[in-house]
Design a protein that fits this description.
With 198 residues, this protein is mainly alpha-helical. It is built from eight helices and no strands. The two termini are 18 Å apart.
Length: 198
């Protein structure tokens, strides 16, 4: 899980954005290194498509390069960047849905779950959770990923998604209900209702 950013980190990121806005390539490279992995993890969980994530991360960070001067400091830099990534992810999901509608007679592509983590005892649990997340609507999936995997509070998630806090809570409520139905075989040791971030 990505830990919430400290105030000092947010200030450092804001300073990098200011330098990027002036065309400082070294600042952009530092910002890229700082955000690449968190954005990759977020977009992978949001879209469920490993083959598309690299390009989405690059697209997100290119927006940062071109629009850093527009960052006004009304939110934390991470909130601004994740908001860009969220919109890029939604566009990818929308494009994929259009493509799938065009291939209604084709067989669905298998989800690739192989990787080093398959050796570990919890691989089946991780695979089931990933499959369940993919079945959630994108808006609900985004709330779950930002809450559980990135540890963000509801007000910041609302800023990222561009909606009221109440909408975030409603989406989480419905997501938990769907996950409770989708994951009955997980032993109900994980209570999805206990982890809200006010």
């Amino acid at each position: 899980m990505t830990q919430p950013l400290s105030a000092a980190t947010a200030d450092a990121d804001a300073a990098l954005l200011e330098r990027i806005g002036r065309g400082d390539r070294a600042a952009f490279e530092a910002f890229y290194r700082r955000y690449y992995r968190p954005l990759f993890a977020y977009l992978l969980r949001l879209t469920g498509r490993p083959e598309a994530v690299e390009e989405l991360v690059d697209d997100t960070l290119m927006v940062v390069w071109h629009r850093a001067a527009d960052f006004a400091g009304r939110s934390r830099p991470s909130t601004w960047v994740f908001g860009i990534a969220y919109r890029k992810g939604l566009k990818e999901l929308s494009r994929r849905q259009r493509d799938e509608r065009r291939r209604v007679d084709a067989e669905p592509e298998p989800v690739e779950l192989d990787g080093p983590d398959r050796r570990w005892g919890r691989r089946e649990l991780a695979a089931r959770v990933a499959e369940a997340l993919e079945r959630l609507p994108a808006e609900q999936r985004a709330v779950v990923v930002l809450t559980y995997y990135h540890g963000l509070p509801y007000p910041e998630i609302a800023e990222i998604l561009g909606c009221p806090v109440g909408t975030v809570k409603t989406r989480m409520f419905h997501a938990r209900r769907k996950l409770a139905r989708l994951l009955p075989e997980l032993g109900v040791e994980r209570d999805w209702t206990e982890h809200g971030h006010e």
